[in-house]
């Protein structure tokens, strides 16, 4: 539909959710996502290992004027790097992956994101490759799943459609921001980077202790551990407590001196 009026306020959302595209395959699809983002006032586009490299002239052609989004786009080598500053990450998927995570519709997700942004958090929505979607390792990093209720016999969306649908719900929710209870400023939610450092340390210590056995179920064990701690929505303070706990367990009992 036509309807661009450059004399009006752009509606840009500098604090809106980040849009994370994991291994997008075609420049045209990235361009259509950028166009959908600008339609909905979103500007933070993050690309993880785009297949055809970046920048991509086909993306600019498909963006139909949304070059401001493409110019700000950032490229990352991994999902944890792309999401390191986010404290609440939604992963889009149409399939049940056997993980226990909260599942939001786009409308419910928009309200949740607005509440968290109002509380000072950075949030984002992650989209997988066009053909296969997100892999379990990427889903494990997310705090929750975003699923669009569509015809169960044909629920597939192309990348631009998915971004536009979710962006639309975000934009429409702007006049109905839910009431927010501010989190304790002394203990903000842990970022993806903070959580990933903890997970890496925990896995290394468990591996050293011989916990991961038998070998054929090790990937599942690691995914279950990450899902467990991610579901807990740990704060920075809680992550530091967990660091102290695993340090105490790895070092063993300490002898405390007593005064005679």
Walkthrough of the structure:
By secondary structure, the chain is an alpha/beta fold. It has helices at residues 27-39, 57-63, 67-72, 79-82, 106-118, 136-141, 159-172, 192-208, 218-231, 236-251; strands spanning 18-22, 45-48, 74-76, 88-92, 103-104, 123-127, 144-146. Strands 3-2-1-6-4-7-5 form a 7-stranded parallel sheet. Strand 1 (18-22), helix 1 and strand 2 form a beta-alpha-beta unit. Helix 8 (192-208) packs parallel to helix 10. Residues 7-11 have low confidence and may be disordered.
Features:
single chain; 260 residues; alpha/beta; Alpha/beta knot; 2 domains; seven-stranded parallel sheet; 10 helices; 7 strands; globular
Describe what is shown at a glance.
With 260 residues, the protein is of the alpha/beta class.
